[in-house]
Amino acid sequence: MGLFKRLFGNGAPDGFTGALEKDETVIASAPVQGGGHLVVTSLGLWLPGEEPRRIGWHLVSKVKWEGALRVVEATEASVEGPVVLLEDLPAQRFDLDDPGRVLRAISQRVEGSIRHRERVESPGVWILQRKIPGQDGVVWQARGDAGVALADVREAVSAFAAKLAG
Predict the structure, then answer these.
(1) Nearest residue to 36 via CA among 103, 87, 95
(2) Closest C-alpha among 14, 54, 59, 11 to residue 36
(3) Which of 39, 66, 97, 145 has a beta carbon 3.0–4.6 Å from 124's, enabling a disulfide?
(4) 17-44 as b/e: b if 16+ CB within 10 A
């Protein structure tokens, strides 16, 4: 363990029980009403719970302040050529006394993971090229708007993948 970490810790809040990776850096954190912490790191967003878990920045679909922090996590539903199709999980809400620094840090990391974005208006699909934290390279992802069927997303992505192939 480095001298800095031995003297000053890893930056995680007291009581945080998540297992940070060796090179994972804590950027911001905030206590959640009811217990636990939201912890923003270089690799993702740690959610509180009995066993805290990290969502990689490339799988944070939406974050919004609505009197509480609303986080929408995406899951990898399938693959269409070079594109990973994502589906949003139900939103999770976290009551924070002061979201300021955490909200800014999350927004910066989510936006910073996006290298390219393209919109397919009909049927309503976002296609993104994103950096996966802690890994080399990028990944293409597609996510349909609310109510857009996965089959319609797949069709839009198929046309996009053909365009990529040249």
Answers:
(1) 95
(2) 14
(3) 145
(4) ebebeeebebbbbbbbeeebbbbbbebb
